[in-house]
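Protocol step 4 of 6: structure prediction from sequence.
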Amino acid sequence: MKLNEVIIIVKRLYREYIKKYLGKIFVAILLSVLVAGSTSAIAWLLDPAVKKIFIEQDKTFAIFIPVLVILAFMGKGISLYYARSIVIVLGNRIKQTLQNKMTNNILLSDSQTIESKHSGKYISTFLYDVGMIQELVSTGVLNIIKDSLTLITLISLMFYQNWKLAIFSLIMMPLAAIVAKSLGKRMGKATTASVISSGNFTTLISEILKSSKIIKIYQREDFEKNRSSDAIKDLTDTQIKIGKVQIRAAPIMETLTGFMIAGFIYYAGILISQGEIGINNFFSFLAAMMLAYQPVRSLATVNMLIYQGAAAGQRVFKIIDREIKIKDDDKLPSLQIDKSNIKFDNVSFQYETGKERAIKNISIDIEGEKITALVGHSGAGKSTILNLIPRFYEPQEGKIFLDDQEINKVSLKSLRDKISLVSQDVILFDDSVENNIKYAKLDATEQEVKNASKLAAADEFIDKLPNKYKTLIGENAIRLSGGQKQRISIARAILKNSPIILLDEATSSLDADSEEKVQNAIFNLTKNRTTLVIAHRLSTINKADKIILMKDGNVLKHGTHAELLKNSKEYESLYKKQIMH
């Protein structure tokens, strides 16, 4: 990152996230003043200690000064503890705010935007990048305040003891600044490489966990071992590089300090021999100079924290600032449902710029309170039509109407409130059966949940589970069969009781017995409701009031089952293949 980019990011972090905590930061500054004062007091006490105890051998000071030294160290320790506590809380609160903002953006983003980036990359940003910003705030801010104040008080003490030695000792300061600036730039580059490696590794591990059965059945364990080994090596190499950059300041600073102390001892010897500084002043000065080494070293490396935090902030802000393309507008009117007629007027959509359109100038009427089926081979555009109705995606061309109301001119909440979706890719949460069904209606009663389950033919297997409706189903409902997952998903849609139902291969995972029960439930459920079905099962197609035949993003024909068999060779071919299947 360039310096001006770092400054912009740091300014924004201060303006939007740190500034609100200025009161607590002020308390941390006061505590840091105590830390700095205590540290300088420790060095200053060596002056009277050497003079009164070792030279004059005053027994009163032999007790009094050690007590003051103990009190100085206690004061430093207690002040430092509370100062660190404040900035730790501050750093974690800022981390919490950033994670909340990223979560909100992801939750409100359209499906196309979310799917453009692998989930592993998001996880890496949530954990790794935000952690670096937290480190910048909790460690960097405190170090800048505490070490700057400590350095100022120690340098003041050094000038108090002897201004000539103090000036000599300050020679290393600009050299340390030059080293810090160089290492900061390298740290920014290394951190960016590390984030990429971390994202790739998180992505790989996520895929391995989700695809364990596929890996096993195709015996690709060795292949995945090699892939993960390469990713881990890449991540390790970048972490090693960061670690080496971080400690690179140490030998440089140690060497500079060695030269400084050697010159200091030589020059101090001359001043002592000339009577310009006493032994007691020399020891106090030496202690102050040695104590100043730690804040100098800390301030030299805080530059790296700033570059790391700024680079991480840049990636976090990309998510926070990302435009939400499909968002609700409180000023828009609510959708008013009458018959739930759906109309597509010359609608075209493509998932990625430059790629072929998924649907092309589609104009169809989906009659309200009837069952309409979409049929066709894979890639025909059936799922795209389904996803455009609740505005998961926005078409590039054309308009979609619901009861003569353009769907992007009514509130998004009122639109989605009228739609239920059951997909072939069942999404269930790592929670109880009851809570997964209640996700459609959080305030649903126990009886409502049971009624919905009964209509979905799910009550039979739920009652056999160890804790019935309270049974935890595990990640991705690992403890349930495919058919059981599907029936819980259908129960959830039934509970919502919406006037529009979208069924995307809703019975694809059911056995013959369960399918018959669910089909009867769906048939009863869809009375007086607009139902759009994607299915290859003949039982579903035969019950549809209207069938729309699609191919390559176009509508070929539409009509009843009997009409299409008579008028469409494409449909007849599809029908015969289903019979044979």
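Step 5 (inspection) to follow. Residues 3-320 form a domain with the ABC transporter transmembrane region fold fold (CATH 1.20.1560.10).
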